[in-house]
Design brief:
disordered N terminus, single chain, 346 residues, 2% strand, mainly alpha
Amino acid sequence: MAPDSKENSSDLMDATDNLHHEETNTSKGKNPVSKICKRCGRTEWRKTITGKVGRKAWRLFWVLGLLVVLVALFTQWGSVTVGTLIFISGLAGAFSSQVRCTTCKRQWWRLGLMISGWIVTGCVLGAILFIGIHRIGENSVDQLFHRRGIHELAELYYTTGRYAEAEPLYKRTLAISEKLLGPEHADTAGSLNNLASLYYTTGQYAEAEPLYKRALAIYEKVLGPEHADTATSLNNLAGLYYTTGRYAEAEPLYKRALAIREKVLGPEHADTANSLNNLAGLYETTGRYAEAEPLHKRALAIREKVLGPEHGSTATSLNNLATLYRTTSRYAEAEPLYKRALAIRE
């Protein structure tokens, strides 16, 4: 019997509430009013002014979104997506504000806020992406692909000895890299290195040196002082110094390049053999034959193992060691090495 009596008292309370609502339902203007919710059947209090303000705010919001869409369509701003999201957000909020019942309205309001939150998040991310893309230019992706094509053509001209045709292409590649990627990007350093190598090959050492130095500074800053590309840049600048007779400046750079390659690439890598060969050549040129010989032998052993006994670089090492023997009057040791190198090249 206890449960039945409890239900009866509840019915009595609902009836009392209904009577109270009927009495206040005659109020006008901005006074509290009450209506029966068509969704849940409950009678809830609501202030008329709240509903009006909410509806006006959300309507203004979706009208603003619609204007953004229209303006974007006519001015080609590229922000149609953002305007559409604002419009949908306002529409969702306006729909949720039409619910009269406090209970139902709370549920729809939460749903509206959730949808609006997703949309606002999408707008923020879209705006960040939009700004990021336009920061490097509207056609940045196309320009990067264009840069790649220019670089490949420049490499072809350089490889085939058409240096006059390669130079303007290398310069264009460098300009695009600096504009799109920045003056301190690793790819910008690569473009600097390529142009410097062209100048080095054509004997324009004064033009090559500052480019090699800039590339090295970028690699050290961006990739680190012990990166393989840093070692390559060190080797290139050292080669320039060696060619121009600045041996004292070349030696520490060759040694740094060798140390990096031994650590990063390994003691038996082909690039390590190149560094050994370069440092040995420097020692030989400056008359330090005793220091050059073990380096030539190491370079030869690595190339025979890694590249093979009949590779062109192996022939170069054979020839270099033979030249060292010839210079030091060790002709009997030089002869078989010269013969092997000749046989490989034939």
